[in-house]
Description:
alpha+beta, SH3 type barrels, 2 helices, globular
Amino acid sequence: MNETKHFAICIDNGEYAGTLELRKVYEILEDSTAASRNHVRVIDESGEDYLYPSSWFVSVAVPENVEQRLHDLVVK
Length: 76
Protein backbone atom coordinates (compact mmCIF):
# COMPACT_ATOMS: atom_id res chain seq x y z
CA MET A 1 0.00 0.00 0.00
CA ASN A 2 1.91 3.04 -1.28
CA GLU A 3 -0.82 5.56 -0.70
CA THR A 4 0.50 9.07 -0.11
CA LYS A 5 0.00 10.29 3.42
CA HIS A 6 -0.85 13.90 4.23
CA PHE A 7 0.18 15.77 7.35
CA ALA A 8 -0.50 19.19 8.82
CA ILE A 9 0.55 21.22 11.84
CA CYS A 10 -2.17 22.41 14.21
CA ILE A 11 -2.08 26.21 14.59
CA ASP A 12 -5.43 26.67 16.35
CA ASN A 13 -7.47 24.30 18.50
CA GLY A 14 -10.48 26.44 19.39
CA GLU A 15 -12.29 24.83 22.30
CA TYR A 16 -10.70 21.42 21.56
CA ALA A 17 -7.48 21.76 23.57
CA GLY A 18 -7.97 18.23 24.89
CA THR A 19 -8.06 16.65 21.45
CA LEU A 20 -5.74 18.91 19.44
CA GLU A 21 -2.32 20.12 20.53
CA LEU A 22 -0.93 23.33 19.07
CA ARG A 23 2.25 22.92 16.98
CA LYS A 24 1.74 19.15 16.71
CA VAL A 25 1.80 17.29 13.39
CA TYR A 26 -1.41 15.38 12.59
CA GLU A 27 -2.27 12.95 9.83
CA ILE A 28 -4.95 14.24 7.48
CA LEU A 29 -7.30 11.77 5.81
CA GLU A 30 -8.63 12.49 2.35
CA ASP A 31 -12.26 13.60 2.45
CA SER A 32 -13.53 15.59 -0.52
CA THR A 33 -16.87 16.35 1.16
CA ALA A 34 -15.11 17.83 4.19
CA ALA A 35 -12.75 19.80 1.93
CA SER A 36 -15.69 21.29 0.03
CA ARG A 37 -16.93 22.62 3.38
CA ASN A 38 -13.50 24.01 4.41
CA HIS A 39 -12.84 21.22 6.89
CA VAL A 40 -10.22 18.48 7.16
CA ARG A 41 -10.52 15.00 8.60
CA VAL A 42 -7.82 14.64 11.25
CA ILE A 43 -6.73 11.72 13.42
CA ASP A 44 -6.67 13.55 16.73
CA GLU A 45 -5.47 12.72 20.25
CA SER A 46 -8.36 10.29 20.74
CA GLY A 47 -6.92 8.14 17.94
CA GLU A 48 -10.13 8.60 15.94
CA ASP A 49 -10.71 10.84 12.94
CA TYR A 50 -12.88 13.94 13.25
CA LEU A 51 -13.61 17.01 11.18
CA TYR A 52 -11.99 20.32 12.08
CA PRO A 53 -11.82 23.67 10.28
CA SER A 54 -9.12 23.73 7.61
CA SER A 55 -7.93 27.08 8.91
CA TRP A 56 -6.70 25.36 12.08
CA PHE A 57 -4.00 23.49 10.15
CA VAL A 58 -1.08 24.23 7.85
CA SER A 59 -0.15 21.45 5.43
CA VAL A 60 3.41 20.21 5.54
CA ALA A 61 5.34 18.18 3.02
CA VAL A 62 7.52 15.46 4.46
CA PRO A 63 9.89 13.08 2.72
CA GLU A 64 8.33 9.78 1.70
CA ASN A 65 10.42 7.77 4.17
CA VAL A 66 9.15 10.00 7.01
CA GLU A 67 5.48 9.71 5.94
CA GLN A 68 5.28 6.03 6.85
CA ARG A 69 7.06 6.56 10.16
CA LEU A 70 4.62 9.34 11.13
CA HIS A 71 1.66 7.22 10.04
CA ASP A 72 2.90 4.28 12.12
CA LEU A 73 3.04 6.52 15.20
CA VAL A 74 -0.62 7.50 14.70
CA VAL A 75 -1.97 3.96 14.35
CA LYS A 76 -0.21 2.51 17.43
